[in-house]
């Protein structure tokens, strides 16, 4: 489809010299939406962990529980990305994703700062709500607020796992979200990867790839062992994937900072999404 035939959407990107006050006035709705979505994600993580691992609800074989956990979190993530809020904010839900897009110059520095703060606040709020609803089933072992700690292989393996998995996640987001044919499937690619992570990799690091998610669990479980891994490795992995993508494809081939872009929702980023369609149609791709 020619870019001229696509419906236009409003872009509210900040100018490069925007102040922090201007950023808040312009995008406070997006910041609160991002906090809300991250909170819902953490509530779902707490809910599924309590249902599957506390023994109070579902009695699944031990080997099946990680896959069931991944499936639950996957469905929640897809719904959030494709929700009205997700279509507007880009549904990063993860400071590592936001910082990677900031590195790629698609997110203004003040937007990135507010997004990250709101992701942490939203994550803590979501886990607090889960604790309020689920009580002891969320607090006691083996659930422990779904806290992420290094597996039996140690901190080095956990660090490498979180770095690699975060790099793979960001690579898939960038590849699908910036391809005319695949862009509509980006949420499902993230969802499938989530099932894979939980099913096959959770034993290495507990599966985080999200600093806000691990921080929220650590706050309520009061277990801080290895937290630095979950703050550093996901960001490093996402940034390394962004750097490789920019070197391979060029920064001009990052059309927006949304995980899933439609042509109706307001976009708060430096957005050239319509160019994706125009470029592909002209090249016959």
UniProtKB/TrEMBL annotation:
GO CC field: plasma membrane
Membrane topology of this protein: Multi-pass membrane protein
Record's keyword terms, sorted: Cell membrane, Membrane, Transmembrane, Transmembrane helix, Transport
GO MF annotations in UniProt: water channel activity
Location in the cell: Cell membrane
Residue intervals passing through the bilayer: 39-58, 64-81, 112-130, 156-176, 188-207, 227-246
Coiled coil ranges: none
PANTHER family: AQUAPORIN TRANSPORTER, MIP17260P
Similarity comment: family membership: Belongs to the MIP/aquaporin (TC 1.A.8) family.
Name recorded for this polypeptide: Aquaporin family protein
Source organism: Terriglobus albidus
Taxonomy of the source species: Bacteria, Pseudomonadati, Acidobacteriota, Terriglobia, Terriglobales
